[in-house]
Amino acid sequence: MSSQRLSILMYHRVLAAPDALLPSLPDIRRFDRQMALLKRCFHVLPVTRALSLLQQQRLPPRAACITFDDGYADNAEYALPILHKHGLSAAFFIASGYLDGGQMWNDDVIDHARQAGVGPRALDRLLLELKYLPFEQRQRAARAMAPPRRQELMLCSPQVRALHAAGMEIGAHTHRHPILSAMPDGEALADIQQGKTALESILQAPVTLFAYPNGKPGRDYQQRHIDMARALGFDAAFSTVAGSAYDGSDLMQLPRFTPWEPDRLRFLLRLLAQRRVAV
Ligand SMILES: [Zn+2]
């Protein structure tokens, strides 16, 4: 094993302004500061390029990648201009079933919490209670509590094409974002496949990167889902296990971590601490 390490950051959203109900999500200013710091201290590479260099043991020192999960419209509206400004590239893992006007179950619950005056801790508990319900039951329960939608949260197809045209990588993240372990194998396979096919049809290009919904091995996905992803033609897949990748890492279960700290020094220290844990 060489000592080369690849840090893979995972984001979901970049907000227009801080949101007291969602304190872990960066707003534009915090994300801008994080990207500036990342650019200064790390060699940020596109995911496909980084994985190729990792396998050849040719990674530059302090190599890092940026990823986004789920496919929020703010990725194109707010994150993309900031990435551009710093000359950085990122990969976006998109759940295709919510493009063009859809909304994920967790955002239905967040809308409910906002309207009902529920605080961030109670919201986290509510999300955790619902997350592992059988898929259809979870979707129904969340939709039933949600007030009417006021804005489109997720990307539309032209925005996906715009991200791609801007040099960003687009990866699949299933169609409906189920917990794969909690659904019959046939449905899981179909959902992973549908997510890939839908994005390929939007982009008219192959989609070879995948991120497991929720992403915890043994709980959210199993070995059989790794085999499905490989059989469907994905070259690399990402979990949400914290740590950094090294040249012996399983390319179908690459670790990532969320740099959630609001202040710059802690963000940097967390990045560096993650590099000591090889997965
Ligand atoms: Zn996700």
Structure description:
This protein has two domains: 6-102 and 154-274, Glycoside hydrolase/deacetylase (TIM Barrel, Alpha-Beta Barrel), CATH 3.20.20; 103-151, no CATH class. The protein contains ten helices and seven strands. By secondary structure, the protein is of the alpha/beta class. The radius of gyration is 18 Å and the shape is globular. Strands 1, 2, 3, 4 and 5 form a five-stranded parallel sheet that branches. The longest helix has 19 residues, at 185-203. Helix 1 packs parallel to helix 3 (73-86), helix 4 runs parallel beside helix 6 (135-145) and helix 8 (185-203) packs parallel to helix 9. The protein binds zinc ion.
Number of domains as seen in the coordinates: 2
Oligomeric assembly: single chain
Distance from N terminus to C terminus (CA atoms, Å) equals 12 Å
What is the CATH architecture assignment of the largest domain?
Answer: Alpha-Beta Barrel
CATH class of the largest domain: Alpha Beta
The biggest beta sheet reads: 5 strands, parallel
| Morphology call | globular
Helix content: 40-55%
Q: Averaging pLDDT over every residue, what do you get?
A: 94
What is the H-and-E element order? EHEHEHEHHHHEHEHEH
Query: What is the fourth-level CATH superfamily of the largest domain?
Result: Glycoside hydrolase/deacetylase
In DSSP terms (H or I, runs of 4 or more residues), the helix count works out at 10
How many β strands by DSSP?
7
Radius of gyration: 18 Å
Kindly name the structural category: alpha/beta
**CATH topology of the largest domain, which one?**
TIM Barrel
